[in-house]
Every structure is written in C-alpha cells, then in structure tokens.
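To illustrate this point, what follows is a protein record of this kind.

___
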Amino acid sequence: PDWGVQATVSWLLSDRFGDESVSIVAEEDDETLSSSDGTALLESVVAAVNGCLVEAPKYGLRSPEKDLGAHDVLQAIRKCSSTGGPKGRFWVLDPVDGTLGFVRGDQYAIALALIEDGEVVLGVLGCPNYPMKKEWLNYHQRYYRLMSKVAPPTSGTWNKGCVMYAHKGCGQAWMQPLVHDFGMLSWHNSREVQVSSVSDPVSATFCEPVEKANSSHSFTAGLAHSVGLRNQPLRVYSMVKYAAIARGDAEIFMKFARGGYKEKIWDHAAGVVIIQEAGGVVTDAGGCPLDFSRGVYLEGLDRGIIACSGALLHRRILEAVDASWNSSTL
C-alpha cells in the first residue's frame, strides 16, 4: 500500500499547488516497481491509485482527466525525492506508518506534514482504525471487530477511523471521522481535541511502541515505575500514539531507540505539531525541541523522544531519565 498512498498524495499535492512548487520527502522509492520483476506489482499499484483518485471530488479536489498510467504513477513516486534541510518548504510523508499494524488489521497511520525553514507548520494524521469514540479503545481490536458484526455501528463510531490535523501557532488541533463509501467531506463533523488534564502520574497512561525492535520496553517500564505510573501501558503501532495523547486518551509517549537506530523525520513530524497545538509538550530526553532541519533523520537527538500532555508530567519524566540513564543497559 505504501507506493499507492505515496503516488496518490504526490499527484494531489502537485495538482493542487503546481508541480514545480511541490517538494516531498517520503519513505518509498520506485526501484522495486521499476524493476523487471515488479511489473505485476506496478499494475496493482496503478489500479489502486486510480481507484483512489476517482474519489477526489468527495474531498473538494480534482480527479485526473483520464486514468494515470504506469509512467505517471512512477513519476509521482519519484517526485518524493527531496532530502529536506534547513531552508525552504517541503512536505514530509509517511504513506503507511505502522506496516505491521496495517497487516494485522490493527493501528496504522498515514502521516503528512509541511515543513518551512526547518519548522513543522502543518500536520495531518489519518488513522483508519482509530475510533472516534474513546470508549472503543477499552476493547481488544478483535473484540470490537466482532461487536461491530453483532451490532452494526452507526456513522462516527470506531470503524470509520479519524483524521487529526493542526496548524502551527493556532493553539488548536482538530479531529473528524474518515469519509468512507458514502457522503462528502464535511467540516461540520470536525471537533477540537485537547490533551488530558491529568497531571498526577498515578492516574496517567503512557504509550509505547508495540514492537521491541527499535525501542527499549524495559527502560520505559523502569521509568514509568520510577515516576509513579501505575496504569498498564497503551501499546500502539505507529504515530497513532501521538493522536492518542493529542486527544486525551493517554498522557505520555516515550521512545528510546536502541543503539544504532536513527529516527526519521516522517515518523514524527505530523504528530509533534498536532500534540503541541492540542496543548502538549514534545522534546528529546534533554528537553530540547526535535530538529527537523537536518535532513531525513532527527540528527542531534538526545537519547530519546518524550511527548506529554502537560509540562508537569514532562518535567518529571525528564528528571527520571537523567536519574536512570547511567544505570540502564539500553
């Protein structure tokens, strides 16, 4: 799905803002699709892209005058070859963040951000399996999938997913249900989201990655205990963790990379601005803002990333990191 999403977003941005003025940093390249072994895969991607673009008028956007061909799709993917940097304007796209979540029918996100002179100014998170209503999160994914068959959900419930978005400096973040097989995009369905007001660690919930490959669960668990967190962690695939904090479903997200792993800007940019505009705080473990001006990686990151619903919790986590770091085996 990554190539299809990337080609679709690339084409729409170029059509809307002009081909020459759009620069995109994204995760995928066209090497596999362009190879002699990729013909069948390319055909399926082209079909998927055209199936998406025909729906564009539902969102107030333009569809192509005729179906895109293989060359057009490859060109759209190749356009996503910017390497970012400190100057100018560029988009940052993660076409499918949380591939395992996607494959398993669990949480994943489509993440798009706009960066101007190294600062994230716009963030959009599409979360197809993340319910609009918080109470659905109390059920295991398979259970509420079963429940939906027993009692078909109405418009706006969990199975519709949600989109969250924010613009830097507005002091507001917004959420609305996804548009599915019916209806048109309506801004009347949007509602403002805000971070949780919980400031006592005993009542707070923290998010962490599901997979252990690139992060240390043991270190975050030790930190959670040291600051008094007692709730079970909310283990969520992808940037949906940022969405959870922005709308108050959790209070803390901590990620400490294992040695040698470097964080990419597309895994964080959209989520950071959404949390900040919803009233939260996101820094590295040294308390410094994340630096999106140094290419495709978050260079200069101090140990890890900490996102919190408020300054008090954030400060306690930073203090706990300093107290625990030297004795850890991370």
About this structure: Residues 201-327 form a domain with the D-Maltodextrin-Binding Protein; domain 2 fold (CATH 3.40.190.80). The chain has a mean pLDDT of 86. The longest strand covers residues 89-97. Residues 3 and 28 are 7 Å apart (CA to CA).
